[in-house]
Amino acid sequence: MAAPDLEILHPKFIDHLLGHRSDSGIDGFLGLQVMELEAGRLVVEFEVLDDHLTFIGNMHGGCLAALCDHCLGLVLYPVMPPGSWAATTEFKVNYLRPVSGGVCRAVAEIQSMTRRSAVVTIRVENDGRLAALAQGTCTVKLAEEKDG
Amino acid sequence: MAAPDLEILHPKFIDHLLGHRSDSGIDGFLGLQVMELEAGRLVVEFEVLDDHLTFIGNMHGGCLAALCDHCLGLVLYPVMPPGSWAATTEFKVNYLRPVSGGVCRAVAEIQSMTRRSAVVTIRVENDGRLAALAQGTCTVKLAEEKDG
Amino acid sequence: MAAPDLEILHPKFIDHLLGHRSDSGIDGFLGLQVMELEAGRLVVEFEVLDDHLTFIGNMHGGCLAALCDHCLGLVLYPVMPPGSWAATTEFKVNYLRPVSGGVCRAVAEIQSMTRRSAVVTIRVENDGRLAALAQGTCTVKLAEEKDG
Amino acid sequence: MAAPDLEILHPKFIDHLLGHRSDSGIDGFLGLQVMELEAGRLVVEFEVLDDHLTFIGNMHGGCLAALCDHCLGLVLYPVMPPGSWAATTEFKVNYLRPVSGGVCRAVAEIQSMTRRSAVVTIRVENDGRLAALAQGTCTVKLAEEKDG
Q1: Is C84 on the interface with B (CB under 8 A)?
Q2: By CB count within 10 A, which of A45, C101, D35, D81 is most buried?
Q3: CA neighbours within 13 Å on the CB side: how many for A144?
């Protein structure tokens, strides 16, 4: 469950993101699509494509790592004041089973949040089976703090 | 320093990889190039491109995470018996400063290795300044153990 | 939730541990007591004592880290064949708020388990508020594999 | 190597700690002794005692985890303004080989430090062989920010 006391501070962000499918950047390479987004909880999916696999035939772990990093920050935006931004400062991921096709679905939940940082957990399922678990920290910054 | 007692078991892999620049997969998206590869140590570089940045103007953390995951496995191949393969089972990364351009250079070192797994650390520099640190575990598998 | 398909293979271990309060070792230093133990799920508690605090007045993070390490292994015993043992191979912990007294309660859950290893998550609450989150890997070994 | 640009801001702390052997708290349970302390680098040792072992005969992983947590904070004190304090916010540890006796020696190095936080790595050797690797984050706080 996500932290219980989170409030939506940026509802337009949700309107903007819901259903959005990235078409550039590393999230575009993966084909990430935002399926659900509410206070403290985000669901993102992508379809495993041939270009995500290694020569072994399994998905490159870097795809799951990038997915987790992406969700770690994104889940914070609705509960941050507009104009803020989030940067992952650290995370850890365990890969639980090889993925070779189908859909990967990440559920990110804010576990704890202060004004300046949050700890987020992520569960990734591949066709209904747990494929990865991640846990990490995001720093919340205001626009003027960009390089702090 | 890398673990002191590692031996090259697969010299052809080094010949094949040295200087190689990925042109497909997530490593191709990043543009990873193998600069150095020896027993227990790997250096990989890529140039930060616009498509690696987020809307904030900094590189997406997922690019560094994918880089680390990639190096974690790759550094093992020269010291595994030919026909084996390596799969990251877990890793952790700390991002130390924002990256917005230039070259990222990852140095991966095997810290400890048994017949079945290895612990690897990675230092990523961006234009000479430390940008990320990672530490993780790879499992070594023989071809017939692919889905174990 | 814990992995759904775990079976009790060592019921005597549960009978033996339930209610047990450690009186030696680092678990004895902490005063860990097993409150619940079932297939894939363990609850351990201890009371925060003055000797657990640092000169700042907050609990030493090492106490929570040791608690997490302890639970990571212990939760496996009921679902391993008798005679096996579990050794933590790696874990990561995030501290979410300072602890200065009261009771710490850790809930450990096996998220994924093969014949040879398991990934476990741990939530630590202090007087009802989330104080730490951990995630790690345990290796399962048979008695004869002790130093493998 | 530690971050290159660190300056001693609290030399008395070094004078006070060098050679000090903890006799209370979890560091006292372990018997930690500060062997070296300079800008960005700390060496701590302890002797493995019977009370540090589990029923298997190997050292409890929690002892190494607590050692790492302890060093993560301690290494910061000489380079923080007097009156500040350091709190580990997260770390990750990999155990590389079982420890059953002898001396454990941890070398902690600050890899990166801002005014408000630092990333630290730790190598633990047991009788000259690498036994654990850790990496984590400490938050720097001034006395008045204790519960922030």
Answers
A1: no
A2: A45
A3: 0
ipTM of the complex: 0.95
Domain ranges, residue C28: 11-145
Amino acid at A65: A
Token pair for A82: 């507009």
In the block, tokens 């933590």 appear at C88
Residue D116 included in any domain: yes
Subunit contact B119:D112, Cβ cutoff 8 A: no
Which of the four pLDDT bands, split at 50, 70 and 90, describes residue D28? very high
Cα-only R_g, chain B:
15
- Please tell me the predicted confidence (pLDDT) of residue A79: 96
Long-range contacts, stretch B12-18, CB < 8 angstroms, 24+ apart:
B12/B82, B13/B77, B13/B78, B13/B82, B14/B38, B14/B78, B17/B74, B17/B77
Question: What's the domain count of chain A?
Answer: 1
The overall average pLDDT reported for chain A is 94
Q: Is residue C87 part of a domain?
A: yes
Q: Does D142 touch chain B (CB under 8 A)?
A: no
Q: Do C92 and A92 touch (CB under 8 A)?
A: yes
Instruction: For residue D85, give the nearest of D13, D20, D7 by alpha carbon.
Output: D13
- pLDDT over threshold 60, residue D146: no
Tell me if D98 and C87 make a contact (CB, 8 A cut-off): yes
Those chains having 3 or more beta-carbon pairs within 8 angstroms of chain C are A, B, D
pLDDT tens digits, residue range B5-39?
A: 899 999 999 999 999 999 999 999 999 999 999 99
Of B94, B111, B130, the CB nearest to D133: B111
- Is the CB of residue B139 less than 8 Å away from at least one CB of chain D? no
| pLDDT tens, residue by residue, B65-109 | 999 999 999 999 999 999 999 999 999 999 999 999 999 999 999
Q: Indicate whether C71 belongs to any domain.
A: yes
Are C92 and B92 inside 8 Å of each other by CB? yes
C24 touching D, CB under 8 A? yes
Residue C98 has pLDDT above 80, yes or no: yes
Do the domain assignments include residue B5?
no
What integer pLDDT is reported at residue D148 of this predicted model?
43
pLDDT at C143 over 90: no
Whichever domain contains B16, its CATH number is: 3.10.129.10
